[in-house]
Input
Amino acid sequence: MRIAILGGGVTGLTAAYFLAKKGQEVSLFEKENTLGGLASGFKEKNWNWYLDKTYHHIFSNDRDILNFSREIGFKEFDFQSPKTACLFENNLTLPLDTPYNLIKFPLLNFSERIQTGLVLAWLKYLPLFSTYEKQTAAEFLKNNLGKKSWKILWEELFRKKFGKYAENVLASFFWARIHKRTKNLGYPSGGFQEFINYLEKVCGHYNIHISKGREVGIIKKENGLFKINDLEFDRVISTLATPLTIKVAAEILPASYLQQLNKINYLHAVNLIVVGGKKLLPETYWLNILAKKIPITVVVQHTNLVDKKYFGNNEVLYLGNYVDVENKIWNMEKPELVKLFSPHLKLINPEYTIENQISYLFKSLWSQPVYDENFKQFRPEFCTPEKNFHIANLDLTYPYDRGTNYAVKLGKQIASYIN
Output
């Protein structure tokens, strides 16, 4: 059976590997010149490792990617326990990565801290209940932790992550974030692009045809076969973002089905990477920004997880945001973002300067689906109304957030689904 896979990210490559192992004839199409999708990276001449275009790590319980890496012979991931913290109003930075830090948290009284700890423990160790899909995270947190806890700890986190959709996000998303998180974080030797390049070579051993730098046009169907760039296939798996899948499959999927998929809301990622001799965060790896006045979702000091020696002895900092197209940040170019962020970074560290350091800007469309009622009702599944046309993109990892572990899991699942 001839199978076409659209998209050369981790899901597409994993699906190609497992399908080829079953003896299928697989072709993979990627419009970019390099594979990896949202996990792709780049490398400068004086760097030994790739740098991810968007910040990534895995958790110690991410068994899908860990087991898969062992299966294909990729070297183990290195695990560490870096510090994470939150930046509140008035430049108050507090660690919240252990139960002990929560017990000491000064912005809630003792009973509120205990209540918060008990509810988080409940979410951590108990399974996903159907009731989580019947209420929003805002409702759940206000009802179970209190309005004060919502205001101080969670409201701005959700607003930074989901913007105007913050109070529509389902409690199931919050459960997944708490349930999956671990203190130990892992990172592959060489960067995630090194893992992807290795997987590409493994796919080559199975005679998978990989076409890079060529965009897939509108898919046709003639005589029971799908036509992609003048090639014919028995089945198609789209790992493309749902809006892109809608575009390429516009002539083979029913209009009513496409209209349903179009009801899903997405936010887009804007990542400014700063590389230079200065470090913004001396010890903290991950800093959630809960201060409303700072227009940044998260600050990630990558070189507090990965040694700077791999990047020419330079410190690496990610400044990440999730925005819609109406947000001014989406339309800003790199010099404008540097100017916008500079005074806010000085609030975090007065000795830090961004202007004289090298920076890179990467923007990714549709990188964050909004897990609201619309998503629950209209999200795609493997099967579509068109027989033998399948969707296997990161929308299907719900309630878990996108990530390389779930990309691997999804690729393996769709390969098993196809006979």
Summary: The mean pLDDT is 96. The first strand starts at residue 2 and ends at 6. DSSP finds 14 helices and 20 strands in the chain. The two ends are 10 Å apart (CA to CA).
